[in-house]
Amino acid sequence: MSHLPAPSDDTPPPPLHVAVIMDGNGRWAQARGLPRVAGHRRGAEAVRACVKGAARHGVTHLTLFAFSSENWRRPRDEVSALMGLLRLYLRNEVAELAREGVCVRMIGERTRIDADILDLINDAEQRTAGNSRLILTVALNYGGRAEIARAARRLATAAAAGHLDPDSIDEDRLGAELYAPDLPDPDLLIRTSGEQRISNFLLWQLAYAEMVFLDVAWPDFTEDHLAGALVDFHQRDRRYGALSG
């Protein structure tokens, strides 16, 4: 049963963009005496619930932190298992996502990702490009600092070539060089497993996001947890540096 009230004229609109740090897969598995990959497998089911719930509750943009640039430091067998699950998800879920009006996108460096996975990502992006019910962005081999550094390099290169006046560089110009400049900034960040940090995720874009930290591990995340976070979001007073009205 959803925690959200039935829609009415007085019901506030949902946040436009929800970003999620899906944390706790390994600890969920270890607490049950299972290999860490079992937590990642169960976490894939939570992804399904989150995507369906976001679309059902009117969220238009959902960004999931799937694999950070730092995650390569994990044991080789765990990284291999994660990539295998990504392959499986892309093969099994894209057709349904396309039917449900979901547009799939990826942000992050595409280096180090196996060619067959990149082919699956490219296919998913092409097959769903015309959809607009929910923009599902997957952050893969992603780091927020690296994204900002990449944008700065691109601007520096343009300036050095004489194509850009350095004095014209402002927040909007730098933002235009990020991986997905057309995405609105997240209104709400959700992180599971009780950790209360953003772990190099969307550092530029989260400047004014509301944050909800949940004690539930990601494999146990359900649509009800999403609904509860949306209710929490609507109780916040978002001032963007100004005074309350």
UniProtKB/TrEMBL annotation:
<feature type="binding site">
    <location>
        <position position="74"/>
    </location>
    <ligand>
        <name>substrate</name>
    </ligand>
</feature>
<dbReference type="InterPro" id="IPR036424">
    <property type="entry name" value="UPP_synth-like_sf"/>
</dbReference>
<comment type="similarity">
    <text>Belongs to the UPP synthase family.</text>
</comment>
<feature type="binding site">
    <location>
        <position position="28"/>
    </location>
    <ligand>
        <name>substrate</name>
    </ligand>
</feature>
<feature type="binding site">
    <location>
        <begin position="197"/>
        <end position="199"/>
    </location>
    <ligand>
        <name>substrate</name>
    </ligand>
</feature>
<dbReference type="InterPro" id="IPR018520">
    <property type="entry name" value="UPP_synth-like_CS"/>
</dbReference>
<dbReference type="GO" id="GO:0005829">
    <property type="term" value="C:cytosol"/>
</dbReference>
<feature type="binding site">
    <location>
        <position position="72"/>
    </location>
    <ligand>
        <name>substrate</name>
    </ligand>
</feature>
<keyword id="KW-0808">Transferase</keyword>
<feature type="binding site">
    <location>
        <position position="210"/>
    </location>
    <ligand>
        <name>Mg(2+)</name>
    </ligand>
</feature>
<comment type="subunit">
    <text>Homodimer.</text>
</comment>
<feature type="active site" description="Proton acceptor">
    <location>
        <position position="71"/>
    </location>
</feature>
<feature type="binding site">
    <location>
        <begin position="68"/>
        <end position="70"/>
    </location>
    <ligand>
        <name>substrate</name>
    </ligand>
</feature>
<feature type="binding site">
    <location>
        <begin position="24"/>
        <end position="27"/>
    </location>
    <ligand>
        <name>substrate</name>
    </ligand>
</feature>
<dbReference type="GO" id="GO:0000287">
    <property type="term" value="F:magnesium ion binding"/>
</dbReference>
<protein>
    <recommendedName>
        <fullName>Isoprenyl transferase</fullName>
        <ecNumber>2.5.1.-</ecNumber>
    </recommendedName>
</protein>
<feature type="binding site">
    <location>
        <position position="23"/>
    </location>
    <ligand>
        <name>Mg(2+)</name>
    </ligand>
</feature>
<keyword id="KW-0479">Metal-binding</keyword>
<dbReference type="GO" id="GO:0016094">
    <property type="term" value="P:polyprenol biosynthetic process"/>
</dbReference>
<feature type="active site">
    <location>
        <position position="23"/>
    </location>
</feature>
<feature type="binding site">
    <location>
        <position position="40"/>
    </location>
    <ligand>
        <name>substrate</name>
    </ligand>
</feature>
<keyword id="KW-0460">Magnesium</keyword>
<dbReference type="Pfam" id="PF01255">
    <property type="entry name" value="Prenyltransf"/>
</dbReference>
<dbReference type="GO" id="GO:0008834">
    <property type="term" value="F:ditrans,polycis-undecaprenyl-diphosphate synthase [(2E,6E)-farnesyl-diphosphate specific] activity"/>
</dbReference>
<comment type="function">
    <text>Catalyzes the condensation of isopentenyl diphosphate (IPP) with allylic pyrophosphates generating different type of terpenoids.</text>
</comment>
<feature type="binding site">
    <location>
        <position position="36"/>
    </location>
    <ligand>
        <name>substrate</name>
    </ligand>
</feature>
<feature type="binding site">
    <location>
        <position position="191"/>
    </location>
    <ligand>
        <name>substrate</name>
    </ligand>
</feature>
<dbReference type="InterPro" id="IPR001441">
    <property type="entry name" value="UPP_synth-like"/>
</dbReference>
